[in-house]
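Reviewer 2 asked us to include a model.

Predict the structure of this chain.
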Amino acid sequence: MTYRAKNYRVGIDIGGTFTDFALLKGDEVILHKNLSTPEDRSLGVMEGLAKLAGKEGLPLPEFLSRCEAIVHGTTVADNTLIEMNGALTGLITTEGFRDEIEYRRGYKEDIWDVRLAPPVQITPRRRRLTVPERVLHDGTVHKALDEEALREACRKLRLQNVEAVAISFLFSFVNPQHERRACEIVRQEIQNAYVCASHEVLPRAPEYDRTSTTVVNAYVGPRVTGYLEKLVQRLTEGGYENQLMVMQASGGVMTKEYIDGAPIRVLASGPAGGVIGSAHCGAAKGCPNLLCVDMGGTSYDMSLVVNGQAPAEAGWNMHHRYLVGVPMVKVETLGAGGGSIVHVNAGALEVGPRSAGSEPGPICYGRGGAAPTVTDALVMLGILSTDEGFAGGSFTLTREGVTEAFQQLADELGRQADGYGPEQAAFDTWRVVNANMSQGVRRTTAGKGIDPKDLVMLAYGGNGPAFAAIQAEDLGISRVLVPKASPTFSALGTLVADPTIDEERSYIASAAALDVPRIRDLWTQLSDRASHYFTGAGFENAAVRVNYQLNMRYPGQNFSLSFPFEADAPLGDLSFIADDFAARAIALFNARHMAEYAHIREHEVPEISGVRLVAHARTPSPRAAGGFTPSSTAPRPARHRRANLGQGFAQTPVYLGRDLAPGMEVPSPAIIEETFTTIVVYPGWKAQVDDAGDYQLLRT
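Predicted model (structure tokens):
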């Protein structure tokens, strides 16, 4: 399918509370938000598209027919793991390896917490069955697949009403013969079940990584594919004529057809869109090293961009307490969003991780919510307005019930003798959630040996700019970027992301004894797969550029480092493989190891653990710009509001984003109200509108 020349590109990101839209029309970006529809998230998507069509003065069918691309980031897989409502899943594995998935390599998230229970088993032991078969490390069949035993295992799973089956045999990534046959039999014996095999989902060692990733894929697969199929159907019926492009955790996008092969690729894809957008924006602003913070309605996501890059890493990626080995942009998540519920636990105020979501939402939404949230606290503190339309006029916030809820919190804390009331409880909520987020950032940066003071913070999400400056002050950061599009930044990021395929294949051998034709063959297989899917997405091979990468390690190391052996090469052109292949691989690996760990083992010969291909094609993306030219015109506040910005309640100037032109500077304290977000200029800071209309907050 080839794209017709059309007018629009639409990026969509579904969050726990809002569904965000970014419409690219030439160089113009139009933003929109509406409440998510948890009962059927595709309804919220179609509703938002209809609103965008209305803004363009078009009926929905004509608008969709003029869309060159619709790019979608979804949290369906994440929500499935968080809520543990995935498919009833069974596992079929090699005889003798039934409990591999439960050992978890002995990993425990908190080794000091003796009460920490293991994660809920997606495949409890009664649904983990084994069959006689064995493939050796070199691909030789040591024991043939016992098909009768496999059919008996299917009968037992069928009696348990399984909806999905994961198949993971030993060394199937070298020789997938048994797994392919097992898939055929399982589909015959358990009709309508979702079936996936490890050689398709994660064709590489080690065994636990591969099995865990395949089990999670089976668990979330029916939910992801079912949702995407429903959305594609609605889009097609509405008049959309191209393929739906889906955001991946690797930071690239690809067609739904590609995602169907391994739906696990969309896990954490929403946050990845924001990171890719951050790297794009930071480069334009001259800020290659960024701390990216995204505070939405449900969560607070933290990530790092270093030297302008947010590389995807494949390996030990733990998400929601499950290991997922596919390439992922590193994003750390806290249960700290605008909808995070405030409660008292053992006499102390706690925020999150439970969220009010969009239904019923915070109390101030006026939709039946009864539990106080961070958003309610911002209303109590005067940071959010109850006078104007909220979220672009979607609805108006109300104080009804909010004061009473925080009074109840104050009563539970038992500080009445100190004159402690609802406003103090709301302020303590602000303090606690801010401390939680700052501590989360410290853990993230310390784990990478990075000092936050050396970074520029880029804040986005509906709530990120409301906390950004005070968090930056806590962390020693002196500059904060807030893009004009920050409320829908992850949606905008999907339009920045290139169509990308990131896959690998295992090949384990010493660099001193490489089978170079084997490496060539593996890269050829990956190139052919990439060509198939890019062609289906409407891209010629000549438009696709490839990084041919190697995974290498020193003998005895558990984890490999990935690095480009040949960067920015034409798809399928392997002419760079020459007689000096091994020597060049060793030199490149040693340089990568020195950069990552500051040492090399000069007298050891490293080994290759696999090959990787990262292929991408360029598409139009939103233009970003930087620079600041001071204006001689000083902005005037639209009004004043009683608000507490950390130093007690005072009449605080409120500015409207639409009144602020490039070059203007807003002194502190102040509140800036944009259509979908609120930017707080805390004492000791100032806000500037740069030449592109974006904001930067600077410590004075």
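Residues 207-238 form the longest helix (32 residues). The first strand starts at residue 8 and ends at 14. We have added this to the supplementary material.
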